[in-house]
Amino acid sequence: MPARGSGAVDLKVGPLHAHDTFSRRGAADIAKTHKEDTLDHTRVIHEGAAMNKIEILTGAGISAESGLGTFRDENGLWAQHRIEDVATPEGFDANPKLVHDFYNMRRAESTKASPNSAHDALAQLQKAFRGEVILVTQNVDDLHERAGAETMHMHGALAGSLCAACGARWPSSLLTQPEDPCPSCARPTTRPDIVWFGEMPYQMDEIYAHLGDCDLFAAIGTSGEVYPAAGFVQHANASGADTIELNLEPSSTVSHFAQTRFGPAAQTVPAWVSELTSG
Ligand code: BJW
Predict the structure, then answer these.
(1) Of 41, 155, 235, 256, which residue is the catalytic one?
(2) How far, in Å, are 8, 62, 170, 219 from residue 257 at the CA level?
(3) What backbone torsions phi and psi does residue 137 show, to the nearest 5 degrees?
(4) CATH code of domain 15-67+116-155+201-279
(5) Potential cystine with 126: which of 13, 133, 142, 168 (Cβ 3.0-4.6 Å)?
(6) CA of residue 196 to ligand 1 center, whole Å
(7) Distance 186 CA to ligand 1 centre (A)
(8) Contact status, residue 268 vs residue 261, Cβ threshold 8 Å
């Protein structure tokens, strides 16, 4: 399997599922606690404090209202497909056709979907904010780009193919199969350009560098179950950044966030962006 990313990632993450007690609390309780305990960063902006860089992490929840399934929600993708079969290199080795079929299906669904108002709002924020807005997504769909945003795809993209033999990457056809020859080495070793469990996500050095000097870190529509993304909030906290979670319900890492907003992303994200950009 070809090496992914830089290979020099420092995965200083906390223990998994350390915040179960928080995740069992009601969203309203948590939102209330955070509202009472913390200074609202939108107020900080309005009061003129320097806010030069915002780093935003998105997950499957931001595309839910575009009709794309999440992974861990009831009836999510992992309720219908075994992770080991479709999202590990071992699963691919055991049954490459099954894996190609899974991602062909996902690619077809993603092509039919359209960006929703949350994708639109983040693209607008990138244009309107006077500093930098770094958008990192775990999603493999292209809805952020189709809304007009510049995005880092840490878990790869449905739009890409990868040679399992030589590591070449190229734009994917809508339908792929294991026998497709690699345009670089000609071997029949095509796989989706997706980061599976046990593989190194893309652009980690760049993502951690931004976490080291951002003023605000926001996580939107992600369960906080998958590392290294689930550990980003701790890196942001260590750098002294303000943090906010926007989600349908509290994630596994909710207790690390200074602020929270709960509700459908298509409502909470435009409202949050409007607070950030007005005034
Ligand atoms: C809404 C909403 C609405 C719904 N509005 N919100 C122990 C310690 C530390 C790490 C590990 C460990 N054991 C194993 C690991 C590593 C492993 C890992 O994290 N495993 C855990 C599961 C235990 N991670 C990895 O292997 C990663 N690589 C890595 O660590 O490399 C370093 C390394 C390499 C080699 C050796 C050792 C270390 C790679 C992870 C790859 C993840 N890949 C997947 C599938 C591929 C992409 C695809 O097919 O699409 O990526 S898994 C899947 O989960 C997908 C997602 O990107 C990822 C995250 O899911 P996400 O986006 O959070 O979705 P959900 O469904 O979980 O949550 C949806 C959320 O939205 C929920 O909160 C809802 O409430 C919310 N929501 N509707 C707003 N309308």
Answers:
(1) 155
(2) 27, 18, 37, 9
(3) -120, 145
(4) 3.40.50.1220
(5) 133
(6) 9
(7) 32
(8) yes
d(CA 224, CA 219): 9
**pLDDT band at residue 278 under the 50/70/90 scheme:** confident
Ligand 1: distance of its center to the CA of 279 in Å?
36
- Per-residue pLDDT of 245-257, as tens digits, reads 999 999 999 999 9
Contacts of 43 (CB under 8 A, 6+ apart): none
Query: What is the whole-number distance in angstroms between the Cα of residue 79 and the centre of ligand 1?
Result: 15
Predicted model pTM:
0.88
Q: Is 34 a catalytic residue?
A: no
pLDDT tens for residues 4-33?
433 322 222 222 222 222 232 333 343 444
Instruction: List, chain by chain if needed, residues with CB within 6 Å of any ligand 1 atom.
Output: 11, 13, 16, 59-61, 64-65, 70-73, 76, 87, 138, 140, 155, 194-201, 221-223, 225-228, 247-249, 251, 264-265
Domain 69-112+157-194 fold: SIR2/SIRT2 'Small Domain' (3.30.1600)
Q: Which residue has the higher pLDDT, 266 or 37?
A: 266
Q: Whose CA is nearest to atom 66 of ligand 1?
A: 71
Give CA–CA dist 194/77, Å, rounded. Answer: 15
Please write the tens of the pLDDT for every residue from 45-103. Answer: 444 457 999 999 999 999 999 999 999 998 899 999 999 999 999 999 999 999 999 99
Question: 88 exposed, middle or buried (CB, 10 Å; 0-12, 13-18, 19+)?
Answer: middle
